[in-house]
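Incident review: delayed structure delivery

Summary: a single-chain prediction request sat in the queue longer than the usual turnaround. Root cause was a stuck worker, restarted by the on-call engineer. No data loss occurred. The affected request and its eventual output are reproduced below so the record is complete for anyone auditing the incident later.

Affected input:
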Amino acid sequence: MSKHYWPSQTWQTVDPVSVGVDPELPAMLGREIEARFSSINGLLVVKNGRIVVERYYNGFDETDVHLVFSVTKSFTSALIGIAIDKGYIESVEQHVLDFFPEITISDVLKRQLTIKHLLTMTSGFLWRTGARAFEPMLDRMRRTENWVAFILDLPIRERIVGRFQYNSTSSHLLSAIITRATGRCAREFANEYLFRLIGIDEVPAVAQETFDQADVFRNESGGWPSDPQGHSLGGWGLALKPRDMARFGLLYLNDGKWGNRQVVSTQWIAESITPHTPGYGYQWWLRDVRGTLVYSAVGRGGHHIFCVPEKDLVVAIASQPGGRWRDRWPLVEDLIIPAVM
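Output delivered after worker restart:
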Protein backbone atom coordinates (compact mmCIF):
# COMPACT_ATOMS: atom_id res chain seq x y z
CA MET A 1 0.00 0.00 0.00
CA SER A 2 1.42 3.38 -1.02
CA LYS A 3 2.35 5.76 1.78
CA HIS A 4 1.75 8.75 -0.47
CA TYR A 5 -1.79 9.42 0.70
CA TRP A 6 -3.25 12.69 1.91
CA PRO A 7 -6.57 12.74 3.78
CA SER A 8 -9.17 15.05 2.29
CA GLN A 9 -12.18 15.99 4.44
CA THR A 10 -12.55 12.26 5.04
CA TRP A 11 -9.88 9.81 6.12
CA GLN A 12 -9.05 6.31 5.03
CA THR A 13 -9.44 3.87 7.90
CA VAL A 14 -7.52 0.67 7.29
CA ASP A 15 -6.84 -2.67 8.89
CA PRO A 16 -3.67 -2.37 11.02
CA VAL A 17 -1.98 -5.31 9.29
CA SER A 18 -2.20 -3.58 5.89
CA VAL A 19 0.20 -0.86 7.11
CA GLY A 20 2.45 -3.05 9.22
CA VAL A 21 0.82 -2.61 12.61
CA ASP A 22 0.15 -5.41 15.09
CA PRO A 23 -3.54 -6.38 14.72
CA GLU A 24 -3.81 -6.62 18.51
CA LEU A 25 -2.99 -2.93 19.02
CA PRO A 26 -6.62 -1.64 19.02
CA ALA A 27 -7.66 -4.18 21.65
CA MET A 28 -4.55 -3.58 23.76
CA LEU A 29 -5.10 0.18 23.71
CA GLY A 30 -8.77 -0.23 24.56
CA ARG A 31 -7.99 -2.32 27.62
CA GLU A 32 -5.23 0.01 28.79
CA ILE A 33 -7.32 3.15 28.39
CA GLU A 34 -10.30 1.71 30.22
CA ALA A 35 -8.08 0.43 33.04
CA ARG A 36 -5.66 3.32 33.55
CA PHE A 37 -6.50 6.33 31.36
CA SER A 38 -10.18 7.04 31.93
CA SER A 39 -9.73 10.79 31.33
CA ILE A 40 -8.92 10.23 27.64
CA ASN A 41 -11.76 11.49 25.45
CA GLY A 42 -10.34 10.53 22.07
CA LEU A 43 -7.32 8.75 20.61
CA LEU A 44 -6.14 8.35 17.02
CA VAL A 45 -3.25 6.32 15.69
CA VAL A 46 -2.34 7.28 12.12
CA LYS A 47 0.13 5.18 10.11
CA ASN A 48 1.18 6.18 6.57
CA GLY A 49 -1.52 8.86 6.70
CA ARG A 50 -4.27 6.35 7.40
CA ILE A 51 -6.23 5.79 10.59
CA VAL A 52 -5.56 2.40 12.16
CA VAL A 53 -7.05 3.11 15.60
CA GLU A 54 -9.75 5.64 16.50
CA ARG A 55 -11.48 5.48 19.86
CA TYR A 56 -13.73 7.91 21.75
CA TYR A 57 -14.81 7.84 25.39
CA ASN A 58 -16.82 9.78 27.97
CA GLY A 59 -19.62 10.54 25.51
CA PHE A 60 -17.44 12.18 22.85
CA ASP A 61 -17.12 11.37 19.15
CA GLU A 62 -15.10 12.56 16.14
CA THR A 63 -17.22 15.72 15.72
CA ASP A 64 -16.41 17.18 19.15
CA VAL A 65 -13.76 19.83 19.70
CA HIS A 66 -11.52 19.85 22.77
CA LEU A 67 -9.59 22.65 24.43
CA VAL A 68 -6.03 21.42 23.86
CA PHE A 69 -4.26 23.90 26.16
CA SER A 70 -0.52 24.16 25.38
CA VAL A 71 -0.73 22.09 22.21
CA THR A 72 -1.62 25.57 20.93
CA LYS A 73 2.04 26.58 21.33
CA SER A 74 3.15 24.26 18.52
CA PHE A 75 0.55 25.79 16.19
CA THR A 76 1.77 29.29 17.08
CA SER A 77 5.31 28.18 16.26
CA ALA A 78 4.18 26.93 12.85
CA LEU A 79 2.55 30.30 12.14
CA ILE A 80 5.82 32.09 12.91
CA GLY A 81 7.52 29.82 10.38
CA ILE A 82 4.87 30.56 7.76
CA ALA A 83 5.16 34.31 8.41
CA ILE A 84 8.93 34.07 7.87
CA ASP A 85 8.43 32.01 4.70
CA LYS A 86 6.11 34.70 3.33
CA GLY A 87 8.38 37.59 4.23
CA TYR A 88 6.29 39.15 6.98
CA ILE A 89 9.08 38.47 9.48
CA GLU A 90 12.79 38.68 8.63
CA SER A 91 14.09 35.71 10.64
CA VAL A 92 14.14 34.20 14.12
CA GLU A 93 16.97 36.60 14.93
CA GLN A 94 14.73 39.65 14.55
CA HIS A 95 14.34 41.58 17.79
CA VAL A 96 11.06 41.33 19.66
CA LEU A 97 10.88 45.07 20.32
CA ASP A 98 10.96 45.76 16.56
CA PHE A 99 7.28 44.84 16.58
CA PHE A 100 6.28 47.08 19.48
CA PRO A 101 7.79 50.50 18.74
CA GLU A 102 5.27 52.24 20.99
CA ILE A 103 6.80 50.53 24.04
CA THR A 104 9.93 52.33 25.23
CA ILE A 105 12.38 50.05 27.02
CA SER A 106 15.93 50.93 28.01
CA ASP A 107 16.86 47.52 29.45
CA VAL A 108 19.68 46.21 27.24
CA LEU A 109 18.71 42.57 27.76
CA LYS A 110 15.16 43.21 26.60
CA ARG A 111 16.38 45.15 23.58
CA GLN A 112 18.48 42.11 22.62
CA LEU A 113 15.56 39.69 22.98
CA THR A 114 14.84 37.81 19.73
CA ILE A 115 12.05 35.68 18.34
CA LYS A 116 14.32 32.68 18.77
CA HIS A 117 14.48 33.34 22.51
CA LEU A 118 10.69 33.12 22.59
CA LEU A 119 10.47 30.00 20.44
CA THR A 120 12.98 28.15 22.61
CA MET A 121 11.73 29.58 25.92
CA THR A 122 15.13 31.00 26.79
CA SER A 123 14.13 34.67 27.19
CA GLY A 124 15.13 34.97 30.84
CA PHE A 125 11.82 36.54 31.91
CA LEU A 126 11.20 36.11 35.61
CA TRP A 127 8.23 33.76 35.61
CA ARG A 128 7.09 31.67 38.55
CA THR A 129 5.63 28.23 37.91
CA GLY A 130 3.50 26.30 40.36
CA ALA A 131 3.98 22.87 41.85
CA ARG A 132 1.06 21.50 39.81
CA ALA A 133 2.45 22.38 36.38
CA PHE A 134 0.42 25.59 36.27
CA GLU A 135 1.65 29.12 35.83
CA PRO A 136 0.16 31.27 38.59
CA MET A 137 1.37 34.50 36.98
CA LEU A 138 -1.00 33.91 34.07
CA ASP A 139 -3.80 34.88 36.41
CA ARG A 140 -2.05 38.16 37.16
CA MET A 141 -1.66 38.80 33.45
CA ARG A 142 -5.32 37.98 32.83
CA ARG A 143 -6.40 40.83 35.09
CA THR A 144 -4.35 43.50 33.27
CA GLU A 145 -5.59 45.70 30.44
CA ASN A 146 -2.62 45.06 28.15
CA TRP A 147 -1.04 41.61 28.26
CA VAL A 148 1.87 42.44 25.95
CA ALA A 149 2.83 45.44 28.09
CA PHE A 150 2.60 43.23 31.19
CA ILE A 151 4.95 40.66 29.66
CA LEU A 152 7.49 43.18 28.42
CA ASP A 153 7.51 44.84 31.85
CA LEU A 154 8.59 41.60 33.54
CA PRO A 155 12.18 41.56 34.84
CA ILE A 156 14.78 39.63 32.87
CA ARG A 157 17.50 37.82 34.76
CA GLU A 158 20.82 37.80 32.90
CA ARG A 159 21.90 34.56 34.53
CA ILE A 160 18.95 32.65 33.00
CA VAL A 161 18.93 34.21 29.52
CA GLY A 162 19.68 31.34 27.14
CA ARG A 163 18.48 28.70 29.63
CA PHE A 164 15.19 26.89 29.17
CA GLN A 165 12.38 28.09 31.41
CA TYR A 166 8.86 27.06 30.47
CA ASN A 167 6.43 29.96 30.36
CA SER A 168 3.41 30.85 28.30
CA THR A 169 4.31 34.52 27.98
CA SER A 170 6.86 33.66 25.28
CA SER A 171 4.19 31.96 23.21
CA HIS A 172 1.74 34.82 23.67
CA LEU A 173 4.35 37.33 22.52
CA LEU A 174 4.83 35.19 19.40
CA SER A 175 1.12 35.51 18.68
CA ALA A 176 1.26 39.29 19.17
CA ILE A 177 4.22 39.43 16.77
CA ILE A 178 2.16 37.58 14.15
CA THR A 179 -0.56 40.23 14.53
CA ARG A 180 1.91 43.12 14.25
CA ALA A 181 3.77 41.57 11.30
CA THR A 182 0.79 40.43 9.22
CA GLY A 183 -2.04 42.73 10.27
CA ARG A 184 -4.13 39.70 11.23
CA CYS A 185 -4.47 37.83 14.49
CA ALA A 186 -3.00 34.33 14.64
CA ARG A 187 -6.45 32.77 14.24
CA GLU A 188 -7.15 34.66 11.01
CA PHE A 189 -3.65 34.01 9.69
CA ALA A 190 -3.95 30.30 10.52
CA ASN A 191 -7.33 29.99 8.81
CA GLU A 192 -5.87 31.29 5.55
CA TYR A 193 -2.39 29.81 5.52
CA LEU A 194 -2.63 26.66 7.62
CA PHE A 195 -6.01 25.27 8.67
CA ARG A 196 -7.95 25.29 5.42
CA LEU A 197 -4.92 24.03 3.48
CA ILE A 198 -4.75 20.80 5.51
CA GLY A 199 -8.48 20.20 5.89
CA ILE A 200 -9.13 21.76 9.30
CA ASP A 201 -12.43 23.65 9.47
CA GLU A 202 -12.11 27.40 9.81
CA VAL A 203 -11.65 28.26 13.48
CA PRO A 204 -14.23 30.88 14.51
CA ALA A 205 -13.68 33.99 16.57
CA VAL A 206 -14.86 33.87 20.19
CA ALA A 207 -17.48 36.37 21.32
CA GLN A 208 -15.51 37.39 24.39
CA GLU A 209 -17.04 39.97 26.71
CA THR A 210 -14.96 39.35 29.82
CA PHE A 211 -11.54 38.03 30.74
CA ASP A 212 -12.50 36.06 33.82
CA GLN A 213 -10.97 32.65 34.47
CA ALA A 214 -13.67 30.71 32.63
CA ASP A 215 -13.30 32.80 29.46
CA VAL A 216 -9.51 32.83 29.49
CA PHE A 217 -8.58 29.36 30.69
CA ARG A 218 -11.50 27.06 29.90
CA ASN A 219 -12.83 28.26 26.53
CA GLU A 220 -16.06 26.25 26.66
CA SER A 221 -17.37 27.92 23.49
CA GLY A 222 -14.68 26.59 21.13
CA GLY A 223 -12.76 28.71 18.63
CA TRP A 224 -9.58 30.54 19.61
CA PRO A 225 -9.92 33.34 22.23
CA SER A 226 -7.94 36.58 22.25
CA ASP A 227 -6.44 39.00 24.74
CA PRO A 228 -7.88 42.52 25.30
CA GLN A 229 -5.96 43.86 22.26
CA GLY A 230 -7.22 41.09 19.97
CA HIS A 231 -4.12 38.90 19.90
CA SER A 232 -5.05 35.20 19.79
CA LEU A 233 -3.87 33.39 22.91
CA GLY A 234 -0.49 32.15 21.76
CA GLY A 235 0.19 29.65 24.53
CA TRP A 236 -3.19 27.97 25.03
CA GLY A 237 -6.87 28.34 24.15
CA LEU A 238 -7.21 26.59 20.78
CA ALA A 239 -10.08 24.11 20.48
CA LEU A 240 -9.67 21.24 18.00
CA LYS A 241 -11.00 17.83 17.05
CA PRO A 242 -8.62 14.89 17.51
CA ARG A 243 -8.58 14.43 13.72
CA ASP A 244 -7.47 18.07 13.37
CA MET A 245 -4.64 17.40 15.79
CA ALA A 246 -3.61 14.38 13.73
CA ARG A 247 -3.63 16.43 10.51
CA PHE A 248 -1.20 18.90 12.04
CA GLY A 249 1.08 16.09 13.15
CA LEU A 250 0.92 14.56 9.69
CA LEU A 251 1.92 17.90 8.15
CA TYR A 252 5.06 18.00 10.30
CA LEU A 253 5.78 14.33 9.69
CA ASN A 254 5.85 15.10 5.96
CA ASP A 255 8.29 18.02 6.25
CA GLY A 256 5.58 20.67 6.01
CA LYS A 257 4.08 19.36 2.78
CA TRP A 258 0.40 18.59 2.20
CA GLY A 259 -0.29 16.98 -1.16
CA ASN A 260 1.50 19.09 -3.75
CA ARG A 261 1.61 22.20 -1.55
CA GLN A 262 4.45 23.23 0.77
CA VAL A 263 2.45 24.70 3.68
CA VAL A 264 5.43 25.14 6.03
CA SER A 265 8.99 25.15 4.75
CA THR A 266 11.09 22.03 5.16
CA GLN A 267 13.77 24.16 6.80
CA TRP A 268 11.32 25.40 9.43
CA ILE A 269 10.21 21.88 10.28
CA ALA A 270 13.85 20.80 10.65
CA GLU A 271 14.67 23.76 12.90
CA SER A 272 11.53 23.18 14.97
CA ILE A 273 12.45 19.61 15.88
CA THR A 274 16.12 20.34 16.51
CA PRO A 275 17.04 20.47 20.23
CA HIS A 276 17.95 24.11 20.87
CA THR A 277 17.98 23.27 24.58
CA PRO A 278 17.90 19.71 25.94
CA GLY A 279 14.59 18.15 24.93
CA TYR A 280 13.04 21.25 23.36
CA GLY A 281 12.84 22.73 19.87
CA TYR A 282 10.63 25.54 18.63
CA GLN A 283 7.65 24.97 20.94
CA TRP A 284 7.91 21.19 20.44
CA TRP A 285 9.08 18.66 23.04
CA LEU A 286 11.73 16.19 21.85
CA ARG A 287 12.42 12.72 23.19
CA ASP A 288 14.55 9.72 22.34
CA VAL A 289 12.63 6.47 22.78
CA ARG A 290 15.14 3.66 22.59
CA GLY A 291 16.92 5.28 19.67
CA THR A 292 13.75 6.55 17.96
CA LEU A 293 13.03 10.30 17.79
CA VAL A 294 9.58 11.30 19.02
CA TYR A 295 8.55 14.94 19.00
CA SER A 296 5.32 16.09 20.55
CA ALA A 297 2.96 18.97 21.14
CA VAL A 298 1.83 18.74 24.75
CA GLY A 299 -1.12 20.30 26.56
CA ARG A 300 -2.09 20.32 30.21
CA GLY A 301 -4.43 17.51 31.22
CA GLY A 302 -3.09 14.91 28.78
CA HIS A 303 -3.47 16.44 25.31
CA HIS A 304 -0.80 15.29 22.88
CA ILE A 305 0.26 15.13 19.26
CA PHE A 306 3.07 12.56 19.03
CA CYS A 307 5.08 12.34 15.80
CA VAL A 308 7.41 9.40 15.11
CA PRO A 309 9.16 10.01 11.76
CA GLU A 310 10.97 6.68 11.66
CA LYS A 311 7.63 4.86 11.86
CA ASP A 312 5.59 7.32 9.73
CA LEU A 313 3.33 7.50 12.77
CA VAL A 314 1.14 10.15 14.39
CA VAL A 315 -0.76 9.72 17.65
CA ALA A 316 -3.33 12.31 18.73
CA ILE A 317 -4.87 12.27 22.20
CA ALA A 318 -7.57 14.59 23.60
CA SER A 319 -8.47 14.41 27.28
CA GLN A 320 -10.77 15.67 30.00
CA PRO A 321 -9.62 19.03 31.40
CA GLY A 322 -8.80 19.48 35.05
CA GLY A 323 -8.17 17.06 37.85
CA ARG A 324 -5.29 14.64 38.14
CA TRP A 325 -4.15 12.87 35.03
CA ARG A 326 -1.71 10.10 34.22
CA ASP A 327 1.27 10.58 31.90
CA ARG A 328 0.36 9.43 28.36
CA TRP A 329 3.92 8.52 27.36
CA PRO A 330 3.64 4.82 28.35
CA LEU A 331 0.89 4.36 25.76
CA VAL A 332 3.28 5.49 23.04
CA GLU A 333 6.53 3.99 24.35
CA ASP A 334 5.25 0.65 25.58
CA LEU A 335 2.31 -0.11 23.30
CA ILE A 336 2.10 1.91 20.09
CA ILE A 337 5.72 2.18 18.90
CA PRO A 338 6.49 -1.52 19.57
CA ALA A 339 3.33 -2.45 17.65
CA VAL A 340 4.62 -0.88 14.42
CA MET A 341 6.59 -3.56 12.61
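Verification: Residues 16-64+245-256+285-339 form a domain with the Beta-lactamase fold (CATH 3.40.710.10).
Action items: add queue-age alerting; document worker restart procedure.
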